[in-house]
Specification:
It is built from eleven helices and eight strands. By secondary structure, the protein is α/β, with parallel strands linked by helices. It folds into two domains: 226 residues, Alpha-Beta Complex (Spore Coat Polysaccharide Biosynthesis Protein SpsA, Chain A); 70 residues. The chain has an eight-stranded mixed β-sheet with strand order 7-5-6-4-1-2-3-8, sandwiched between helices. The protein starts with 5 loop residues before the first strand and ends with a helix. The C terminus is likely disordered.
């Protein structure tokens, strides 16, 4: 097998503090893999600026002008981590044989890339980076994350346990993945749908090297809910089942109420009526909210809006690509 061209795809949002630290690490890893004869000389580090408000894009431009191993694209506005990552992967698919997506904060073990490339050379088209433990997380984050993975799998989402977005994907897979046209994307749950031979590489996750996390609890919950509603319709089926259950339960209460009326055992039931009304009303509102979420996603899908727009490319300025 010829040496594959590797593109390391790195989404960036307000990463001016950590980028000068991690960029040389990615460059050294590319050079080490080249020296080991595992990847081709044309391999690159591709940064994706997701509409950063700080000097992230200026840093990427400076890196690109200093060394041809760095390349960058800048989205026209902030589109979110998943869309930024997708933009980088779609940009790279025609330029390389394999991509490795990774965040730029230095938390994912960069040395796991060696084993990922080895697995590709052994025939794997997708190699998932999987955390072997979550010691750096708080108990709450660890418990909620692990519960979420289990819940999503039970909901029908085919997702790799303890895997985020650190993965190797071949250009062959990316070209097929480009046929997935939905606007609401959850990449870690969508790539298993493509198929092809896959495997996992296990690594230890570290603390962030600099800067602050851009995934507070609210964003994590939003991503989790997007994952469930983008990959599964089981929440709607659960609502249907719950509706059938309460319909049958109401029949029991109707029979009980009629029996009590005809036997003369009826008494004023203000408290019980209030509890039942509140319970049913709450369930109805939750059910409408879940159904509304799906309708909202249908609304967005029917518009066929682009998931991202690339505003600038460093290699257009540097003329490193035709």
């Amino acid at each position: 097998m010829e040496q594959p061209i590797l593109y390391i795809v790195i989404p960036c949002y307000n990463e001016e503090k950590v980028l000068p630290i991690t960029a040389p690490m990615f460059k050294e890893k590319i050079e080490a893999l080249q020296s080991a004869g595992k990847i081709a000389a044309e391999s690159r580090v591709l940064f994706v600026n997701d509409g950063s408000k700080d000097s992230t894009w200026e840093i990427i431009q400076a890196l690109s002008s200093e060394n041809a191993i760095y390349e960058g694209i800048s989205l026209s506005r902030n589109r979110g981590h998943q869309n930024a990552l997708l933009a980088g992967l779609m940009e790279a698919k025609e330029l390389c044989d394999i991509t490795i997506s990774i965040d730029c904060d230095g938390q994912d073990d960069i040395n796991a890339m060696d084993q990922m490339v080895d697995e590709y050379l052994n025939g794997a088209e997708i190699v998932y980076g999987v955390r072997n433990k979550r010691d750096t997380d708080t108990f709450f984050k660890r418990f909620t994350a692990q519960s979420y993975y289990k819940l999503l799998n039970k909901m029908g989402g085919e997702i790799i346990y303890n895997h985020a977005d650190y993965r190797l994907v071949s250009s062959r897979v990316l070209k097929e993945f480009a046929n997935f046209e939905e606007v609401n994307i959850f990449l870690r749950g969508m790539f298993p749908m493509v198929g092809f031979k896959s495997t996992c590489v296990y690594y230890e996750r570290h603390e962030r090297l600099a800067g602050e996390s851009h995934y507070p609890m609210t964003k994590m919950l939003a991503l989790a809910f997007d994952g469930i509603t983008s990959l599964s319709i089981k929440p709607i089926r659960f609502i249907t089942g719950m509706g059938v259950f309460f319909a049958l339960l109401s029949l029991v209460f109707i029979v009980y109420a009629l029996a009590s009326f005809f036997t003369g055992n009826t008494v004023p039931g203000w408290s019980s009526n209030l509890i039942i009304v509140c319970l049913i009303g709450g369930i109805q509102l939750i059910s409408l909210g879940v159904i509304g979420e799906y309708i909202g996603k249908i609304y967005l899908e029917t518009k066929h809006r682009p998931k991202y727009i690339i505003g600038e490319r460093t290699y257009e300025v540097n003329q490193t690509k035709e």
